[in-house]
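Priority: medium. Attachment 1 of 2:
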């Protein structure tokens, strides 16, 4: 009997504890949304320069140094800091032995350029010998104030949720209490770029186009945040 009494008492205490854990508060669950679109203002471009033979004549080779000088001058003329241009890779680290074995050996170099204005990109690439440009493409892109923008959108989404909850609760003659739970749901769509197909300009394409720079149409970054909230109803 004593064991049975102890078991019954423990069961009663367990049920009582569970009852105390049940949230009996009246609640309302709502979500708020905030979104915006911004144009990327930081773009990293890849540029590949390659020596070529004029009319297939090895004695009329356009040297990589000449192509580099054209690129450097174009960047300076566009007002872009020289530190924004970096060498990504060199096709052959030690070109001297290769040149001895093969007089027609052509050197190529790949660069990475940071720009904040795509219009300047047109100026730059248009100032470089198109036959010496193997290809160009976009490596990556970003928005300089992206973190501040994310924070602002989250706050606006949360405020929208509170506003919605307030008028819904007051419509029933109640008052909105404090927030019980907040859950964030984000959606970030980074742009797909379009420029002369895929912003890839091979030498043959550039020659056919008369050496003109590609026309760039850059889509915007879309940011959207949803804040799922739970408020107490007084």
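Attachment 2 of 2:
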């Amino acid at each position: 009997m004593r064991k049975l009494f102890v078991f019954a008492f423990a069961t009663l205490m367990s049920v009582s504890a569970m009852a105390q854990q049940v949230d009996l508060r009246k609640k309302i669950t709502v979500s708020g949304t905030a979104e915006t679109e911004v144009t990327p203002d930081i773009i990293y471009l890849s540029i590949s320069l390659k020596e070529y033979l004029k009319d297939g004549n090895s004695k009329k080779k356009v040297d990589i140094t000449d192509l580099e000088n054209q690129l450097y001058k174009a960047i300076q003329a566009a007002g872009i800091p020289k530190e924004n241009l970096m060498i990504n890779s060199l096709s052959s680290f030690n070109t001297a032995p290769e040149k001895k074995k093969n007089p027609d050996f052509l050197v190529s170099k790949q660069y990475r350029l940071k720009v904040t204005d795509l219009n300047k990109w047109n100026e730059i690439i248009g100032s470089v010998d198109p036959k010496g440009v193997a290809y160009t493409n976009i490596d990556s892109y970003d928005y300089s104030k992206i973190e501040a923008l994310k924070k602002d959108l989250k706050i606006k989404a949360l405020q929208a949720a509170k506003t919605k909850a307030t008028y819904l609760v007051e419509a029933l003659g109640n008052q909105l209490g404090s927030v019980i739970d907040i859950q964030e749901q984000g959606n970030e769509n980074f742009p797909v770029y379009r420029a002369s197909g895929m912003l890839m300009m091979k030498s043959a394409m550039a020659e056919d186009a008369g050496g003109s720079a590609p026309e760039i149409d850059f889509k915007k970054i879309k940011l959207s945040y949803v804040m799922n909230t739970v408020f107490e109803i007084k």
